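From the shared-data thread, chain only:
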Amino acid sequence: MKKVAIIYHSAHGHTEFIAEQILAGIAAIPSIQGDLLHAPALLKKTDVLLEYDGFILGSPTYFGGVSAPFKAFMDATGPLWRHQRLRGRLAAGFSVSSLASGDKQSTLMSLFVFAMQHGLIWVGNPILPEQLNGIPEDEAANRLGSWSGLMAQAEKASPGHAFVPGDIKAAQLFGTTFAHTLLRMQDTADHKGEEVA
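Structure, as tokens:
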């Protein structure tokens, strides 16, 4: 059983809602276990990350970057970084803001750099924007056209009512894509092992 940690911070529940949709996408794939981990709860126990094969990192975008609680989590992983204990595992990222852009790309880039410093292997967002195929924009996955990670736009409403169907669908597909990628990597590693044997 492969394990994926969705590590997130959510001040008002919107980023958590998208994390839950990503988890639903992962849960659709047999032999992959997904867990939601609240970033602030990990500050004094980052060694728990060693139990996971992949990480999906999520933060709201505040002033063009990750939230302060998520940055505190990133900083707390210093001892793991010093010995490169997470090297070779998968990572991906997502961000939520109230505007279509909202500088979410800056947040995804900071998550990417963090992952690279830990020696993680980044999984982007290969979902083609579905409005290109005539699907109404609000129903289209990856309607915001983000390739480096998942972006979602939250309206000023409760989390369950803040997202258009396309963003919810995109989050679920993002989780499924990440899970499939993790399984493909395992298959590749198994085949290499057979060749060596």
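The chain has a mean pLDDT of 94.
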